[in-house]
């Protein structure tokens, strides 16, 4: 939908802070009318669906005692530093315009940890629905954007082991099933088990994070490629990589994998792995109480890229999460054809639709030392982040959705019928009636024309989707009467019910009640697949 | 609330995209834990009040047939260029990291015009609630921020003269009164009248915009200062400035000022001024039909800084909008004391709480030429923008508000009472009950402890503000029974009603109904001053 346009010379001047003195000067400078790469406008029915997703998740978060916060879209650059591992290169920086150095937030987790530390909060359950920014390769139709929404729920505070973690699993499952998504699984792993595996396989302490990053690529690349990265780029001996390869193949139900790991004496001799297995054992009890264990696949290949995780990690995936089978081929082809890689949708999957984990050290990174030089203890945290654009791209595929959704929610279209001598179109009269309806909380519209014929007004009413028309007749209105007509019944020829103006609000309210018209409710039901 | 902290060496390394290998290294680098200048975190009850403002305005916009859109937080830099006059220097730019040059949006109007042009939209009523960014001197307690929300409603399309403009006045009045703000007035003027005044006073065509900028400062500075700017900085002869001075003093009710202007033969001989007066005359008819004329003060000193307005302009102000009487003195003192000018709250007012106008040329600036080299006609637009932070700072002053508001909205606190031998705290049992309540849509919480004594649980329930407790007794629960207890009645010693587990949902729902508990409804009523 982009098009070339010419901008005016004063425009270019004003960009440098120089005021312009005439709007009419012309220049030949051309630029494309578009949004920045990896971003898009949201409008119309898409917007309604997305708002319904927000509303659904907000109710869910609130029902678990969540309170909401809002942090600035940019943070001091130091706040974000050292939190994202290799992905730090994807952070958007703001220009140094003489002031603080700032960057757009990369997720909602680090700003949350900063908020908890800054305000000395001991415990909180907070949710936050907001945009985050990553200078990644976009794949727009798959919902992989540079600007995208995250819906996060996090629990901060010292509690009994794995209690909030299990509740997060409950929220994850309710969130997805509540949006009508049922064919998902939750891959789950534990950073301490993973660290233990690397240790018993012979990875040096200082190499653990980078080997973890390599394992993180297993959802996109085959083992052979990951092994190559470990050995060639990351300097591991082949036998170390092969040993890791055996472990990361392990996956299955929680009880199955726990059984397997517990009976591995080498692994159980490792303190970190042992602690991780104990925690997952406790958690398994709780997710069984919540009856959400069946969604969980305990998967040793899940590593999660971010630096800050310290305990259980998880991500929810669907079949569409994986890249297409011929992804490598398509990617190669795209490269060769040298076409502008605007969009990687062809050769990537949707990715995970929700993800999170435990991060017990992050708040501590922001805490100072007290007067005795002793560092304040960190606040343990665990959370989940829903990727709304990715969920949206799955939900949008339910084709029947779009038909039933209206972008606007007006209920009454006000018309005036007349003609002949002295007919002024009753514009002020329509305004007066509209004003009364608005005051009574009834959504209404009318055509912004002084005089309009009935056909034009009916067409506009149909476009708006209003279920009811209020008609001001040339003779009837001066007698204090209007007609109320239910639209979309096929009986468009009928005149509608003649009503005293003083009864209008009552009659319209009753008719709306009868029609049970509630647009957003419809959408929410549709979302849930009901 | 800021504090100095030390960050770790790996953090600094990772900021350059280098992965870190150890989380424990220390360094001495110090930075302050804060949000960037002019921004703040929102949380707790403030957040509830702000969300209620959004919700109130959203309903209003929808009731006038508005549909919503969402545009990216940054736009291509060329899109913003040449739209904001002298204020262009306040735009935040993103760093050039090898890609497109982009800037944070300065308002929601220019992105809206870009959207309309890009999608070839002929008419739309859209609302948009989102953050905008201005590198201005912040005055935090007055709600003047660098990152702040705007709530915009705009009508694009060719309609009969002044019909949407009058509806915007209706929305402005309903929006403010609906938020319990009643002591406001709407200053209104017309760019074409103002241009006409400048012309008849002898200002040259190319000086009109900069003289308009000078007049725009009349709400903050006395006429003498503005006159000095016109003569000394902007090169106008003194007699020209004096003539302008006579005109910009004119203000009063719509009918009064229309009468005065219409009877000024010099001004009426000017085509631009005449057209403006005709439009305001038409509009006056309509705002009288809406019964909102009494809020409007037709004020020749209102100029509005932005370049893109072409017709009627307006802003809503309250007593707190003006700077304090001793503003100049305080500002001087602040400068002399050389303290870091973090906050200008002491010597500025709240400013306008809502503002807007007609901008018929803006969409056209983004439209291209067709194949015959003919420029596409622009789409006329008119709109209003509510400044939420400023509204918030007014609403927050109603002290009684805060007491009645809860930040969370959970309704049931689940507890377990027991003790003695074999008592395990019923954690899994509490989870099972919570799970049932959540599935029934009932918000609930429980303490994240395996075992907790009754006192701790009651304290937590009180902190959460839940109106109801569900209590699992050591003997009762295994018999399939729990107790349901209404909290906050003063009768904390009573045991509560013994209920079969199978009836729990029904009993809790009935009790909540009886209590008529709906947190958000309360807030909305309070906001409206009811």
UniProtKB/TrEMBL annotation, chains A, B:
Binding site for L-histidine: 107-109, 134, 150, 154, 304, 308-309
GO molecular function, one term: RNA binding
A GO BP annotation: histidyl-tRNA aminoacylation
Biased composition annotated in UniProt, kind: Polar residues: 18-33
Residue span of region Disordered: 1-37, 320-341
A single GO cellular-component term on record: mitochondrion
Matching PANTHER family: HISTIDINE--TRNA LIGASE (PTHR11476:SF7), HISTIDYL-TRNA SYNTHETASE (PTHR11476)
Protein name: Histidine--tRNA ligase, mitochondrial
Organism: Ogataea philodendri
Upper lineage: Eukaryota, Fungi, Dikarya, Ascomycota, Saccharomycotina
């Amino acid at each position: 939908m982009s098009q070339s346009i010419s901008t005016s010379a004063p425009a270019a001047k004003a960009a440098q802070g120089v005021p312009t003195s005439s709007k009419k000067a012309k220049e030949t400078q051309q630029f494309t009318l578009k949004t920045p790469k990896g971003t898009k406008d949201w409008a119309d029915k898409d917007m309604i669906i997305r708002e319904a997703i927000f509303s659904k998740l907000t109710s869910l978060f609130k029902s678990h005692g969540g309170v909401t916060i809002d942090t600035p879209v940019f943070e001091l650059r130091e706040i974000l530093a050292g939190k994202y591992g290799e992905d730090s290169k994807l952070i958007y920086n703001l220009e140094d315009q003489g002031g603080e150095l700032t960057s757009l937030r990369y997720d909602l987790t680090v700003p949350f940890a900063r908020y908890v530390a800054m305000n000395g909060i001991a415990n909180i359950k907070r949710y936050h629905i907001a945009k985050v920014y990553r200078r990644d390769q976009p794949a727009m139709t798959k919902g992989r954007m540079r600007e995208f929404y995250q819906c996060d729920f996090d629990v901060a505070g010292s509690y009994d082991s794995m209690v909030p973690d299990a509740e997060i699993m409950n929220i994850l499952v309710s969130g997805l099933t509540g949006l009508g998504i049922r064919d998902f699984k939750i891959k789950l792993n534990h950073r301490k088990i993973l660290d233990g595996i690397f240790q018993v396989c012979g990875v040096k302490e200082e190499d653990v994070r980078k080997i973890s990053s390599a394992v993180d690529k297993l959802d996109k690349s085959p083992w052979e490629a990951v092994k190559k990265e470990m050995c060639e780029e990351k300097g591991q001996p082949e036998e170390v990589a092969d040993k890791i390869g055996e472990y990361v193949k392990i996956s299955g139900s929680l009880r199955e994998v726990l059984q397997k790991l517990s009976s591995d004496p080498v692994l159980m001799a490792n303190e970190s792995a042992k602690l991780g297995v104990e925690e997952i054992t406790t958690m398994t009890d709780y997710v069984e109480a919540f009856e959400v264990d069946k969604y969980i696949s305990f998967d040793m290949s899940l590593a999660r890229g971010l630096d800050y995780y310290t305990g259980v990690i998880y991500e929810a995936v669907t079949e569409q999460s994986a890249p297409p089978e011929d992804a490598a081929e398509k990617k190669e082809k795209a490269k060769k054809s040298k076409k502008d890689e605007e969009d990687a949708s062809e050769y990537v999957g949707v990715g995970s639709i929700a993800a999170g984990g435990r991060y017990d050290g992050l708040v501590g990174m922001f805490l100072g030392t007290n007067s005795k030089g002793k560092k304040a203890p960190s606040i343990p945290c665990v959370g989940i982040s829903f990727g709304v654009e990715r969920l949206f791209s799955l939900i949008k595929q339910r084709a029947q959705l779009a038909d039933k959704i209206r972008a606007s929610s007006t209920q009454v279209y006000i018309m005036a019928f007349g003609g002949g001598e002295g007919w002024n179109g009753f514009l002020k009269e329509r305004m007066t009636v509209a004003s009364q309806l608005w005051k009574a909380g009834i959504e209404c519209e009318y055509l912004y024309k002084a005089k309009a014929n009935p056909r034009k007004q009916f067409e506009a009413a149909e476009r708006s989707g209003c279920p009811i028309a209020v008609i001001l007749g040339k003779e009837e209105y001066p007698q204090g009467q209007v007609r109320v007509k239910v639209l979309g019944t096929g009986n468009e020829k009928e005149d509608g019910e003649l009503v005293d103006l003083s009864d209008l609000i009552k009659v319209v309210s009753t008719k709306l009640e009868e029609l049970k018209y509630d647009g957003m409710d419809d959408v929410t039901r549709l979302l849930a697949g009901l």
